[in-house]
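Running this now, will post back.
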Amino acid sequence: MIAKKTYLLVLAAALVAAAPAYAQRVSLADRVAALEAKANNPQQNLDLLNKVTQQEAELRELRAQLEQLQNENEQLKQRGRDQYLDLDGRLNRLEGGTAPAPAGTTPAAPPLGSAPVVAPATTPAPVAGATAETPPSVHGDMGALSAAGDERTAYNVAFDRLKAGEYADAAQLFTSFLQLYPSGVYAPNALYWLGESYYVTQNYALAAEQFRALLVQYPTHDKAPGALLKIGLCDYGLGKLPEAERTLGEVIAKYPGTDVARTADDRLRAIQLGRLR
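Update: finished.
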């Protein structure tokens, strides 16, 4: 009798011990079945895929916004550097009486020989330094200047338009002047201010043509240093940075210690600084 009771107790204990293991196996099987059911649910998989895709799109949008902000920040920095250099260049030119700097924008001035362009409602400020134009130096026969009465009148009409900030009209008048007096006493000055009338309206390619023509025809003229500087600035405006650096370096080497050399050095430093950023 005692042996039978002992056997029953041992059997009961074994069953009690085995119960958690069985229950655990059942629970694990249920969990596996539940996972399989989820994996076999296409709608749930689609929802998960859509959520991941949406998060990736949001991440791309945030990256694009960050890049845009960085680009705008760089543009603001570059604009600040350009404004400083323009202001400094204006002061140097006002003090030294050399070529003026750009001021504002207008629509494209006409090319050589084309019809006049109507000035827009908003025009650039008058060219600094154009208010005190000095007569050109005459080499050889000094009587040539006194014999250029009509030439001087035509030149003054064009120059007055330039001083008033009417750059499209000034460009047309200087063009006409050069057609009438291609070898006149004031032809070098007219070439320079024709280039300037294009430069201040950001027609850099047309401006560079006039400055190069001045250098080719009158390499020793008083306007030659300013013309060479402006060629470098035109290249800078056109985004031709290697050409701009080369020309600005030539200005510094050819005219050391002058206002044009200091302006060229400032712009050259700005270009080099921009490359490092």
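The mean pLDDT is 74. More later if anyone needs it.
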